[in-house]
Amino acid sequence: MKNLGKGLLLGIGGAIGACMCLAVAVFAFVGMGASSAANSSTMTNTNETASQVGRIGDRIVSGGIALTILQVERTDRIGEFQEVEEGNQYLTAEVLIENIDRDEAPYNPLYFSVKDADGIEYTSDIYTAEGALQAGEIFKGDKVRGFVAFKMKENATELTLSYEPLVLLGGYETIRVLLEE
Questions:
Q1: What residues pair up with 128 in beta bridges, in sequence order?
Q2: Residue ranges of domains in the chain, CATH in brackets
Q3: Burial class (CB within 10 angstroms; exposed 0-12, middle 13-18, buried 19+) of 81
Q4: Measured in whole angstroms, how far is the alpha carbon of residue 146 from the centre of its chain?
Q5: Residue 120: Cβ within 10 Å count
Q6: Nearest to 120 by CA among 95, 157, 165, 163
Q7: Contact (CB, 8 A) for 162 and 176
Q8: For residues 90 and 133, what is the distance between their CA atoms, to the nearest angstrom?
Q9: Greater confidence, 181 or 35?
């Protein structure tokens, strides 16, 4: 019985070790995909890579996907029913996502976030008004347009929007857009 217990522990330890090796291999493979995507990332009308920050109206390309922030607005209310508490506000951004060079690519308002000058990151909030960006797949050559919203401190400044599909082995590099000067 004593030897059975040792054998069981060794078997479990070996299984955990194998899982850890597999995890390291997967992350290494993901990293290789991300670096190859970085090599093909460009910002329209410049030679900058997507790791640099674009501006509102720029069409930024990374990993076969293009993102353009068409407009940004700060507001206390979205639609009829969505209102923020005092000291906060919504930031809404109208986005255009294009699949330039992938067979298909996912899109989702949850792939967006905004970071302020204090390093606080705001994830996307529910957007109840007409025109909200939905979630789905976009096929090569297609575009999708819609609004994403973020609830944040009213005095948040130096806002930078980030977009990155959360897909294992996706080869996407984060696209960043400065929302304020």
A1: none
A2: 40-178 (2.60.40.1240)
A3: exposed
A4: 15
A5: 11
A6: 157
A7: yes
A8: 16
A9: 181
